[in-house]
């Protein structure tokens, strides 16, 4: 089972990026997915979670209104659209999958993880 993130890079403050997470080895169409991020010296934190159907999503206050998680189950892919980026969004972003259908904010409830993609926002 592999989760492979792509789409990271360097962007200026106020810019946008779209991250993708392609799953292989099994289908995740019946599983909730999430995006986390980790900045140097900080804990890994949730930035978005989406239920298996896509009908339920969760965002913490720090990104709500700026980030949008979505999924294409036919492509076994999850996306994170990030707008109005700020320097404090700089981190390594990780895709993760649960074995359950519902959203979760807890890192320990995700069973599969990608290697991450770096996002750097310059001021």
Write down how many β-strands occur, each being a DSSP E stretch of 2 or more residues.
Answer: 11
Radius of gyration using CA atoms only: 13 Å
Helix content: under 10%
Q: Please tally the helical runs, counting DSSP H or I stretches of 4 or more residues.
A: 0
What multimeric state do the chains show?
single chain
Main sheet properties: 7 strands, mixed
> Structural class, judged by helices and strands?
mainly beta
Uncertain runs with pLDDT below 50, 5 residues or more?
A: none
The amount of beta strand, in percent, is over 45%
Order of helices and strands: EEEEEEEEEEE
* Distance, first to last CA: 37 Å
Shape: globular
Overall pLDDT: 97
Notes on the structure:
The mean pLDDT is 97. This protein has strands at 2-6, 9-12, 17-24, 33-38, 45-50, 57-58, 67-72, 77-82, 91-97, 112-113, 117-122. The chain is built from no helices and eleven strands. A hairpin with a 6-residue loop joins β5 and β6 (57-58). By secondary structure, it is mainly beta. It starts with a strand and ends with a strand. It is globular, with a radius of gyration of 13 Å. The strands form two sheets. Strands 2, 4, 5, 6, 9, 10 and 11 form a seven-stranded mixed beta sheet that branches. 0% of the residues lie in helices and 47% in strands. 33% of the residues are buried.
Q: Which terms summarize this structure?
A:
four-stranded antiparallel sheet; globular; seven-stranded mixed sheet; 0% helix; 123 residues; mainly beta
């Amino acid at each position: 089972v592999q989760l492979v993130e792509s789409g990271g890079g360097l962007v200026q403050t106020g810019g946008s990026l779209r991250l993708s997470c392609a799953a292989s080895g099994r289908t995740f169409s019946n599983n909730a997915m999430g995006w986390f991020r980790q900045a140097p010296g900080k804990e890994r934190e949730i930035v978005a979670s989406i239920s298996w159907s896509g009908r339920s999503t969760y965002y913490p206050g720090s990104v709500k209104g700026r980030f949008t998680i979505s999924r294409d189950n036919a492509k076994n892919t999850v996306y994170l659209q990030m707008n109005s980026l700020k320097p404090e969004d700089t981190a390594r972003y990780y895709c993760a999958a649960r074995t359950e259908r519902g959203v979760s904010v807890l890192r320990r409830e995700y069973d599969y993880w990608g290697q991450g993609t770096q996002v750097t926002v310059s001021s």
